[in-house]
Design goal:
The protein is built from eleven helices and 13 strands. With 299 residues, it is an alpha/beta fold. A seven-stranded parallel β-sheet has the order 3-2-1-4-5-6-11, sandwiched between helices. Strands 7-10 form a two-stranded parallel sheet.
């Protein structure tokens, strides 16, 4: 099977590419960067791909498409609406016309009552993909941990601090999952036929923790426990806006809103897709290896 992975050089996309290649598939990477003459790379600048007709040259020769493109903050024409909504909607309609399998990566915890334009654009993108008539799966992972992730790197660095500053209203639980498991699940979905059961998929790890507990779990065992200091909600909100304005750190107003509600799967299909228990984020490599050798309960 030949698969186009949009955002194939990003955090989630790289892991999807690795998993697809490991399973014997031919992969073409879609990226903003232009590399003339390389048949394994196709340029895909999302703000220029707002109509189905714009997508057909990129989809030529493909059997399936993975959309793992997302932006944390807007830059010029690279807006939330263009990247998260209009381009994925046009892509989905092009896939419907071409009969291609589409795996669209979104996020868990999105609420229509949110005020963050980041969140609202993600919801609009999901709705456009679902309404396209394409053979799609909308994948909603919880927080993703792993090598090469911008947010994951910051969170692990912060977990080593002697003091953990956590918004007082960050009461929502997260089910962090390993990026390698997410990449493998995406690859499996590309191979599966589109069914109603696989149209909307929620994925998460084995543990459900608040952000404060998650930081404690990531903290290296050789360090003494960190002091957890609650930050007033209004202070955390102001800080999130300042981070957005300065384009500093992965903390954003969208994440501030997400932390206030549970971000865990209602029905976690990750063990089913993997055929084994997921890796446990924050546990030792030995414990993870032992879990991966255990058969998954697929009942």
């Amino acid at each position: 099977m030949r698969v186009l992975v949009l955002g194939g050089r990003g955090f989630i996309g790289r892991h999807a590419v690795d998993a697809l290649i490991a399973r014997g598939h031919d992969v073409v990477v879609g990226t903003r960067l232009e590399l003339p003459g390389d048949p394994r790379v196709r340029q895909a600048v999302f703000e220029r791909l707002a109509r189905p007709a714009h997508w057909y040259p990129l989809l030529r020769g493909m059997d399936a498409v993975v959309n793992a493109v997302g932006i944390l903050r807007e830059r010029g024409g690279e807006t939330y609406d263009a990247v998260h909504h209009r381009a994925p909607g046009a892509l989905a309609r092009a896939c419907a016309y071409s009969g291609l399998r589409l795996v669209h990566v979104s996020a868990l915890g999105l609420r229509a009552s949110a005020r963050s334009r980041f969140i609202l654009s993600k919801i609009a993108g999901e709705r456009a993909v679902a309404a396209s008539g394409s053979r799609c799966s909308i994948v909603r992972p919880s927080l993703v941990d792993g090598e090469g992730g911008f947010g994951a790197r910051w969170i692990r660095w912060f977990s080593r601090w002697p003091v953990h500053f956590v918004p007082a209203n960050a009461s929502g639980r997260i089910a962090a999952l390993d990026a390698r498991d997410l990449g493998e699940a995406i690859a499996v979905l590309c191979e599966k036929p589109a069914t109603r059961e696989l149209q909307e998929i929620e994925l998460g790890g084995t543990e459900r923790r608040t952000m404060g507990a998650y930081l404690a779990a990531l903290r290296p065992a050789d360090l003494f426990p960190a002091l957890r200091v609650p930050v007033p909600g209004w202070t955390a909100r102001v800080l999130s806006h300042l981070c957005d304005l300065a384009d500093f750190s992965p903390f954003s107003f969208g994440h501030f809103e997400l932390l206030q509600h549970d971000n865990v799967p209602r029905e976690n299909l990750l063990p089913v897709l993997l055929g084994r228990p997921p890796r446990t984020v924050g546990s030792s490599p030995v414990a993870n290896d032992r879990r991966m050798r255990q058969p998954a309960a697929l009942a």
